[in-house]
Every structure is written in C-alpha cells, then in structure tokens.
C-alpha cells in the first residue's frame, strides 16, 4: 500500500515536499469521491448503474442539459437504457414535479397512433364513444418521451412537427386546437441522419428534435460497469426466500468477456 519511498539519508525538506504532494493527490481523490457520492445522492441516478468514465460523462451531461428546456435526441442501441436516461433528464429539470409521459412509438399500431398521441373527439371514428386528450396533452407542463421515434409514419411526423412549431394540438375530428407546454425528448436505435438521407424521416423534424444529442454507451464500451450491474440485479431480485448471493471473480470475468 506504499505510495512512495525515500532512501536514507534524506533531507527533512525533501520529506516535507513529498508528503505535501501526496497529501494534495489524496485530497483530490477524496474530493472526486465526495463529488461522485453527491451527484449519485442528489440527482437520483440509482437506476443508471455505473462509475465508468463513459457513464460519469453521461451523468454529467444529464446534469448540464436537464435544466435546459431544449429538445433532446437520445441515441443508442436497444437495451442501453435510453428511457432511464430520459427519466433522469426529467428529474433534473424544472418540470420534475409534473408528468413524465413515455410513448413507445413502435408498440402502437399506425391506425391508432394519431389519436393516441393527439387525442380525438367523440364520434371522430367508429368506436370513439368519448373524447380523449391524448398523450401529448397528458404531458402538458411535463416531459414527453417519444421512444423509437424513427418508427413514426410520414403523416404522423408532419403532425408532430406542427405541434412542436405551434405548441398546440388538434385532436382527431376536431377543428379546435389546444395549447401545450412540454419538454420533448426523443429516443431511437436508428441513425436518423441516415434515415433522413433515405427520405424515411423528415429533415426539418430531425433538426427540431436534435437540438442536443446524447449517445448512450453500450456495455462493451463500459465493461468495468458489468460487475456493478450484476450485483445490482442480484440484490434487486433477491427475496426473503432467495436472498442475494455472491458472484465469484471467475464468473464476473466471463460476463465481462
């Protein structure tokens, strides 16, 4: 555990100078540890597991952009935790006390997604027995996450663009518009720039959504976080009947590889 050594004989001044340097290094390490703990505690990154350089940069970026109301495009492979990042951004914003409304654009069929997003009035279509406000208006004063936004059809993209530009929503079957005040986040596992080039995604909508772009790292980019994640899931799924177990080093090495 030695940090350094001095050969005898040595001058007292040399010892004092080296001790001062080591103390300064120790202070910096302690300050870094305190700041890490402060960020983890204050900003509730309990679901964003990891202390790797990539994850610390991601958390710092969330802290920076959270209070800003600018739209954010969250990019990353499937399973990297894009929704967790979106929720963390919401928690760091001035809208944290209001609704966070996630919408899985890939899971809603094209025939109903317009009414799901923008709402509809009674009698707008067969089966519309009551009026509904829609998910966009449900997020008013809060945050709306459009997950897998690259799956939206051109028609819905066009209506979404108008909603962003005008800050208002017109339900299906209505001539009336309703003002909305939302923080818009979008997530995708696609490269939207490529999709724009292929005419699969509107260029003007892309630039509206990507005022800030956040790349969520994959596990292979932060292997050192795998033991933390493994232990997190062991503890999370433990019960009174099946208490948390330990993972030996050999198994962790297999996971990391």
Rg? 25 Å
Structural class: alpha/beta
Number of strands: 7
Q: How much strand content do the residues show?
A: 5-15%
Low-pLDDT parts are none
Number of H- or I-type helical stretches:
10
- Please give the order of strands in the largest beta sheet: 2-3-6-1-7
Helix content: 40-55%
Overall average pLDDT: 90
Order of helices and strands: HHEHEHHEHEEEHHEHH
The major β-sheet equals:
5 strands, parallel
Shape from CA axes? elongated
Give the terminus-to-terminus CA distance.
29 Å
Written overview of the protein:
Helices cover 43% and strands 11% of the residues. It is α/β, with parallel strands linked by helices. The chain has a 5-stranded parallel sheet with strand order 2-3-6-1-7. A two-stranded antiparallel sheet has the order 4-5. The protein is built from 10 helices and 7 strands.
Features:
257 residues; alpha/beta; five-stranded parallel β-sheet; two-stranded antiparallel sheet; 10 helices
In short:
With 257 residues, this protein is α/β, with parallel strands linked by helices. 43% of the residues lie in helices and 11% in strands.
Present the secondary structure layout.
Layout lengths: L11 H32 L9 H13 L6 E4 L6 H10 L8 E5 L8 H6 L16 H4 L4 E5 L6 H13 L1 E2 L8 E2 L3 E6 L3 H6 L5 H7 L2 E4 L10 H11 L12 H8 L1
Parallel strand pairs: 1-6, 1-7, 2-3, 3-6
Antiparallel strand pairs: 4-5
